[in-house]
Specification:
This protein is α+β, with helices and mostly antiparallel strands and about 260 residues long. It folds into two domains: about 80 residues, Gcn5-related N-acetyltransferase (GNAT) (Aminopeptidase); about 150 residues, Aminopeptidase (3-Layer(aba) Sandwich), CATH 3.40.630.30. The chain contains nine helices and twelve strands. Helix 5 crosses helix 7. The structure holds coenzyme A (COA).
């Protein structure tokens, strides 16, 4: 296992940490490709919503790359999802090598997010949390927001790329992960588990309401002892100017996050 992850994303691969859990998870299909009795490739399929299969953890051992193993594994996964009756397959990747392969197998890009960062700021109140009951109204507003389209209508969270709809907002609000600006005119979805920075995986709204919200996120980072905020948002996000206005910058050296979808 460690051999397969060596050299992936400068040694920051998450797979060694989740391996045992993945092997045991009955809700997902974890698959290995073998050659001469050695595991040379891994991948996992996991249902994340009605009709939606999530594809994750594709790895081919460095010693066995560029021989068609990755593509053969992906094709196998697509066939499996299709034969199980799923309508869509989605994936999230921080890598660029596999993009051409996903496109050539029919996937379309849902989002291409850069990382926008700002350091923490001391001294004022964090943003308001949405209540689960706010979800239908927020979802209706978000669906009309120009930001919705640049995210491909989904939340850019590496764990599960889900539609940003009332059901998701209700669940995330219940978990305390939805931040809202004045009168719901801006919205940020927070991902739990940020170790250095407060991670935001979806941002909608514009103007003063959005500026206030992303500024308040900097206060929140301070309040919870994180170094700052990291917002995943496309470079052409409609509120890019608003983010810059309140101190956010594109982290040019941090790479991008990509979401893909295949209609099965
Ligand atoms: C991406 C990865 C799984 C590809 O495995 P592989 O067995 O080498 O892939 P294949 O030989 O089947 O190649 C499939 C296609 O991927 C693309 N590709 C693979 N490696 C590439 C590279 N280094 N640079 C550019 N494109 C690359 C090409 O489009 C290739 O098609 P082609 O050979 O017809 O040009 C492997 O490089 C890997 O494990 N990388 C690290 C983890 C990762 O990025 N996983 C995918 C996202 S979760």
């Amino acid at each position: 296992m460690r051999e397969i992850s060596t050299g992936v994303w400068e040694g920051t691969d998450y797979l060694p940490d989740t391996f045992e859990e993945w092997v045991q998870d009955p809700g997902a299909s974890f698959q290995a490709a073998e050659e001469d009795g050695l595991v040379v490739g891994l991948q996992r399929l996991r249902p994340i919503a009605a009709g939606v299969m999530f594809y994750e953890g594709l790895r081919v051992a460095e010693t066995h790359r560029r021989r068609g193993i990755g593509r053969a594994m992906l094709r196998h996964a697509i066939e499996e999802a299709r034969s199980l009756g799923f309508e869509r397959m989605r994936l999230y990747t921080g890598g660029t090598e596999a993009g051409a392969m996903f496109s050539s197998e029919g996937f379309r890009l849902l989002f291409d997010c850069a990382v926008w960062t700002a350091s923490r700021v001391e001294g004022a109140d964090p943003p308001r949390l949405a209540a689960p009951g706010d979800a239908p109204a927020l979802a209706a507003r978000v669906a009309e927001d120009p930001a919705f389209a640049v995210y491909g209508g989904v939340n850019a969270s590496w764990h599960e790329v889900l539609d940003v709809d009332a059901a998701l907002l209700e669940r995330l609000a219940a978990e305390g992960l939805v931040r809202v600006g004045v009168q719901g005119r801006a919205l940020a979805l927070v991902r739990p588990g940020g170790r250095r920075r407060l991670p935001v995986t979806f941002l909608a709204g514009a103007g003063a309401a959005l500026q206030d919200l992303v500024e308040e996120l900097r206060f929140e980072a301070d309040a919870v002892g994180l170094g700052g905020v990291a917002i995943l948002a496309p470079e052409r996000h409609p509120a890019a100017g608003d983010m810059r206005e309140v101190g956010y910058d594109l982290a040019e050296d941090e790479g991008h996050a990509y979401g893909y979808q295949l209609d099965l």
